[in-house]
Amino acid sequence: MDQIQHNYIETRGAKLHFAEIGTGSTAVVFLHGFPEVWYSWRHQMMAISKAGYRAIAPDLRAYGLSEPNPEPEKASFDDFVQDTLAILDFLNIEKAFLVGKDFGSWPVYLLSLFHGTRVSGVVSLGVPFFIPSPRSFKEALPEGFYISRWKEPGRAEADFSRFDVKTVWKRIYILFSRSEIPIADKDKEIMDMVEPSTPLPPWITEEDFASYAKLYEQSGFDAPMQVPYKGLRDDFAIAEPKIEVPVLLIIGGKDYFLKFPGIEEYIKSGKMKEYVPDMEEKLVPEGTHFVQEQFPEQINQLLLEFLANHV
């Protein structure tokens, strides 16, 4: 971990942080989800750099050591797309493999659609490519669905304000590491779904916990949650999208996202191949939402095999 270097770039009104290691001619860019930061890719960065690749993992805009959009109400997924391109340009990287998870998979897919000449291949952890539906998940799930709650103005802020940052991060991580969608009872808030004595999953060490907590103490939760949870989704403008680069979809069999309405059926149907002709899928049966931290050696092997096949 000490070999990982930390750099900054100023772009579009914000100073952004990214971590990197390795000097290989083939670059791999990792985009994290929530409640994560660059650090969530530490195992993969070390493994692929040892195999001769160059690993780059930004703190997405508003996360960790990266500043938010100066106009928060205008923050969008396009920020992550443009910021990734800016980092590639800054490092004089013509083309890269992209790895995303959780909401970080969406800018990865957008980059492959709109800037395909800059993308060598895509790996997505847990999230298949699909055309966003006008009917959102929150309309199909109970009132206590965590995204519905977090979209209510002031609801998450009031819920989180009862605890310190470390407690909030810990409880979100525990909730997301379970196999059920976080849905609170009517008389409970999302934070109340985790008992105070509940430990973090065994793959998170005290050092890991401290690293995450320190970075979320820097950013807070409000700005990071703006794009994935609070803001409006950008309109999806492509009528018949087709991702022309090779894609590896890694599914954790116990990832709660599989329980979202229609997701597991969509993956099993093979319909994704209509949009992503060159796709392979790998299942990690016991994998949770944080499969890359839970089973790092298995994910590293899948990633290295994919890179070797497509360099």
- Residues in helices, as a percent range: 25-40%
Beta percentage is: 15-25%
Tell me, rounded to a whole number, the average pLDDT: 95
Describe the strand arrangement of the main beta sheet, using strand numbers: 1-2-4-3-5-6-7-8
Number of strands: 8
**Which spans of ≥5 residues are poorly predicted at pLDDT below 50?**
none
Largest sheet: 8 strands, mixed
How far apart, in Å, are the first and last alpha carbons? 26 Å
**Which structural class matches the secondary elements?**
alpha/beta
Question: Summary?
Answer:
The protein is of the alpha/beta class and 311 residues long. It has helices at 42-50, 77-90, 105-114, 137-140, 146-151, 155-160, 165-176, 206-219, 222-230, 263-269, 291-294, 296-310; strands at 5-11, 14-21, 27-31, 54-58, 96-101, 119-125, 247-252, 279-284.
Characterise the protein shown here.
By secondary structure, this protein is of the alpha/beta class. 35% of the residues lie in helices and 16% in strands. The chain is built from 12 helices and 8 strands. Strand 7 (247-252), helix 10 and strand 8 form a beta-alpha-beta unit. The longest helix has 15 residues, at 296-310. The protein is globular and about 55 Å long. The model has no long low-confidence stretch (mean pLDDT 95).
